[in-house]
Amino acid sequence: QRLGEATSLVFVVIVAISAYEVVMRYAFDAPTIWVHEISVALAAAAFAIGGPYVHGTRQHIAIMFFFDRLPQAARRWVRVLLSLLTLAFLSLLTYAAGSQALQSLREGETSGTALNLPIPATLKTVFALCCVVLLAQTVGQLVADVRAARSRS
Asked: Mind giving me the DSSP string for 125-146?
């Protein structure tokens, strides 16, 4: 949870370096070559890390129209079904993300810009690690959902 909250501070950094870019560009006619690339990379990493934070706290956006109309026992079993579907999806996503991250790291993939930083390899690795965390969280949530459904059925 602390990592998720600390990651939100990345957006403060993005605003600060974007303000720096504006000042450099318009006040001194000296635009940077790094602000845009770094801002996009930081935002992408922050959003990727935000996924496990939200999933772990179960604070994601959900449309509860049908779910709220179900009896409590049915809701518990629907949670089990949703956890199973999430587990299947995340298993495939984790495999794909991990494969792409490994390939990117092996090839030393870089951005191809003037800075030519290893941003693609770094972001693919961050995303793959976040997928692993999401998968582990989902397994834990599935176990908890099954226990809840069985104990109250």
From this structure: HHHHHHHHHHHHHHHHHHHHHH
